[in-house]
Write a structure and sequence with these properties.
Distance between the termini: 42 Å
Helix content: 25-40%
GO molecular function: ATP binding; ATP hydrolysis activity
Keywords: ATP-binding, Cell inner membrane, Cell membrane, Hydrolase, Membrane, Nucleotide-binding, Transport
Largest sheet: 6 strands, mixed
Order of helices and strands: HEEEHEEHEHHHEHEHEEHHHHH
Bound molecules: adenosine-5'-diphosphate, magnesium ion
InterPro entries: AAA+_ATPase, ABC_transporter-like_ATP-bd, ABC_transporter-like_CS, P-loop_NTPase
Shape: globular
CATH topology: Rossmann fold
Biased composition (Low complexity): 13-31
CATH class: Alpha Beta
CATH superfamily: P-loop containing nucleotide triphosphate hydrolases
Number of strands: 10
CATH architecture: 3-Layer(aba) Sandwich
Number of domains: 1
Strand order of the largest sheet: 6-7-8-3-9-10
Protein name: Putative phospholipid import ATP-binding protein MlaF
């Protein structure tokens, strides 16, 4: 299991009565000028555009990957890969096992270097920035690793507190308030704080992982197979939680998933990774029209069709002929 979570960045607290995590000051990365709770809350609301499936707005993309190539030895994972993620989108990254989904995320968050190409995050080319800027950019994003990756020897409290303590600027009192608030945000009672990860269900572990990933109020959240291993009810609860966080924090989310229901319920766009590139990055009703064996088997098999039926009626109507045939 990965040992260290990606450090997040302090950005915006979300509730009156809970102290803001002071934002690091940087010449190169814009940080909120104020740490007053009220100011930051209204600032967050004002800067949070509505969820949109369109990239045509004026806002600069949060993530821009251009002509990316990634090789391990002679094994080419990505070749001429492009991906754009707009603000407040929820991108579902889908693709066969081993197609390079996790590797793509690891490059975007700077845990792996591309062999070639450009990746910019929040307008910074992450392949050419200095370490300090890289550190600050990482603080603006949170990550839920594929296997939860909680520290097994630490309590729930200490797991969530860990990125806050790494700042070395917060008092334990403040850390306690933030941790308890994050627990509440992910739907866990404060009584869970003293539990060990081994005492938690899979769904609870994911929630704690999310609480840690949002500890520093990131603007960008990466989720690697967040509902894998969860039963259907826990998956639905997880989807509700992400939807709620997306709504309240205006997060941009990039989520690797095989879970069709999660894709239909959350994704503003689906990016399909196949043949070493992103074949299509579009709303699911456009994706399913692309003639490709992976897309066909993933979305238009029995499970895929059933999941597509959960789309809102207007979106479903756009693909009615695809849903009707072959039954
Ligand atoms: N550090 C590494 N060294 C060598 N090969 C790797 C490394 N990380 C991933 N790979 C290979 O890259 C390919 C894509 O892996 P991954 O991104 O984990 O796929 P996915 O998440 O889509 O299942 C796989 O063939 C995997 O074995
Ligand atoms: Mg993976």
């Amino acid at each position: 299991m990965p040992k260290s979570p990606v450090p997040d960045r302090s950005q915006t607290p979300a509730r009156a009565g809970v102290p803001a995590v002071p934002a690091p000051v940087s010449a190169s990365v814009p940080a909120p000028a104020s740490t007053d709770v009220g100011d930051v809350i209204s600032g967050a609301a004002a800067s949070c555009p509505p969820v949109s499936s369109s990239l045509s707005g004026d806002a600069e993309p949060v993530i821009e990957v251009r002509d990316l190539t990634k090789r391990y030895g002679s094994h080419t994972i990505h070749e001429h890969l492009d991906l754009t993620v707009g603000q407040s989108e929820i991108i579902a990254l889908v693709g066969g096992s081993g197609s390079g989904k996790t590797t793509l995320i690891r490059q975007i968050i700077g845990l792996e270097s591309p062999t070639n190409g450009h990746i910019s995050v929040f307008g910074h080319d992450i392949t050419s920035i200095d370490r300090r800027t890289s550190h600050l950019l990482r603080r603006r994003s949170g990550m839920l690793f594929q296997r939860g990756a909680l520290f097994s020897a630490m309590t729930v409290f200490d797991n969530i507190a860990q990125p806050l303590r790494e700042l070395h600027t917060l008092s334990e009192d403040l850390i306690r308030d933030v941790v308890m608030y994050k627990l509440e945000m992910v739907g866990l009672s404060g009584r869970m704080a003293n539990r060990m990860p081994s005492e938690l269900s899979g769904g609870m572990i994911k929630r704690v992982g999310i609480a840690r990933a949002i500890a520093l109020e990131p603007e960008l959240l990466f989720l690697d197979e967040p509902t894998a291993g969860l039963d259907p009810q826990a998956s639905d609860e997880f989807v509700d939680m992400i939807r709620g966080l997306h709504h309240s924090l205006g997060l941009t989310v990039v989520m690797v998933t095989h879970d069709l229901d999660t894709v239909m319920m959350l994704a503003t766009r689906v990016a399909v990774l196949a043949e070493r590139k992103v074949l299509v990055n579009a709303p699911v009703e456009d994706v399913v029209r692309v003639d490709h064996p992976f897309i066909h088997s993933f979305f238009l098999g029995e499970r895929g069709r059933r999941a597509l039926l959960a789309l809102p009626a207007a979106r479903r109507a756009r693909i009615s002929e695809l849903l009707d045939d072959g039954k």
